[in-house]
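Running log. JK asked me to keep both predictions on one page so they can be read side by side. First protein, sequence followed by its tokens:
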Amino acid sequence: MRRALADAGLEPRDVDYLNAHGTGTIPNDHTEKLAIDRIFAEGGVTFESTKRLHGHTLGGAGALEAAVSLALMHEMRLEHVLSNSFGFGGNDASLVFAAPP
């Protein structure tokens, strides 16, 4: 998440919404929440996992979560959204989406 924000030239306070990966396992969800708390400790961030709505699609989870993030961005008129996707074996990614100027 830190590297994605740095690559986008953003600070945590710039993020309007975070789509957490939310694997549904106690160790993974706890670890993701710890990371969110560390990065967004300053003012927090609105976040949730949309996986409860669409289930886990394994290899397609990241793409689906990104699409949901973009749809939320459009519907809620958000400027910056961060979307987490965590894969097996520590293959993790965070994407930052920005609304067009």
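And the second, directly underneath as requested:
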Amino acid sequence: MKRQLLLFIAIHLIGFPWCLGQGSPVDKQESPPTSPPVARAVRVTLAPVLDGDVLNDPAWSSVEPITGFWQTNPYEGQPASEETEVRIVFDDQTLYVSVVCYDRDPSGIIIA
């Protein structure tokens, strides 16, 4: 029996202008990480509901978010100017990835 891998990315946008290059500069005194981050997928028995509501879905609530992202542009190696949380869960058939992006000034979000 052949298994199929489906990747679903649930993005809950709480602002993301930093993705468009509008983020504010960060403190240049912080040093880059000494080792790469580790992401772990968590097995769940109850699949997430695919409605974009990551923060209120019980399937995501027990998963420790991946945080502490670093920039590649415009300040390579510096901490991200805005907070981002990524969670990864899977069941017997599907791998789910959620991304929650925060922004201090959500009024600047450009929706095309």
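Observation for JK regarding the second prediction: The helical segments are 58-61.
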